[in-house]
Amino acid sequence: MHYHTNQIQSVNAITFDLDDTLWEIAPVIARAEKKVYEVIQAQFPRVSERYTLKDIQKIREQVLVSNPDIIHDLTEIRRLTFREMLSGCHYDPNQASVLLEQYMDWRHNVDFFVDVIPALDLLSERYKLLTITNGNADVKRLGISQYFTASISAGEFGTLKPDPRIFHYACEILGEKPSTILHVGDNPSDDVIGALDAGFRAVWINRYRTVWKHPRSPDIEITSLTELVEFLDGPD
Questions:
Q1: Are residues 173 and 78 part of one domain?
Q2: How many domains does the chain have?
Q3: DSSP 8
Q4: pLDDT in tens, 80-114
Q5: Cα distance between the two ends of the chain
Q6: Distance (Å, rounded) from C-alpha 175 to C-alpha 194?
Q7: Is 100 within 8 Å of 78 (Cβ atoms)?
Q8: Residue 36 to residues 20, 53, 112, 190: CA-CA distances in angstroms?
Q9: pLDDT tens, 3-53?
Q10: Is residue 149 located within the same domain as residue 224?
Q11: DSSP states of 97-117 as a string?
């Protein structure tokens, strides 16, 4: 654990990023896409004859180029990607909802980092907790909603981190000033700099021990939520 500030006083609430903060996201997405592709092979064979699994990413990129206004909404991007694949192979594009639901089921099949649940158990007893995500994970679907006052997703709010408006919306929900809130996340730009720009205190969770490259520093750098609990407990 590295401190880039003095002991933080008057912490009333903590906000958390989700993907790569509470679980590793890359294997989750890879598995979800593979499982959906198996459904495509079984139910929409013309699609799998035309597109490989790797082509899904290319189509997503094309969808974003055509619809830049939905960059914040990963669920809608997925839905339009499936519609494009289906309609291009002369299937009913409305069947995209079937593929989307399959994808979302697997997208929520995550393996929490081992420190996550014990830390949330402790922190939720002492602080108001809230999630702020650029992704489309649902804490209710994940079975962890009991720890959080509320959850904010970029898709529903309408803008992505690091936009300060999404952080300030968290302040409104929590009824707290930015300076009394810690934001915990893995992304240097979206989470750390975004939180600092919004007036939050920023905790960089650096699980993979990478090198910080931004001229501005987080208030605290940790490698697990266990270290965050220890920091907030203060010296013995």
A1: no
A2: 2
A3: P
A4: 999 999 999 999 999 999 999 999 999 999 999 99
A5: 16
A6: 19
A7: yes
A8: 22, 9, 22, 29
A9: 555 556 689 999 999 999 999 999 999 999 999 999 999 999 999 999 999
A10: yes
A11: HHHHHHHHHHHT---B-TTHH
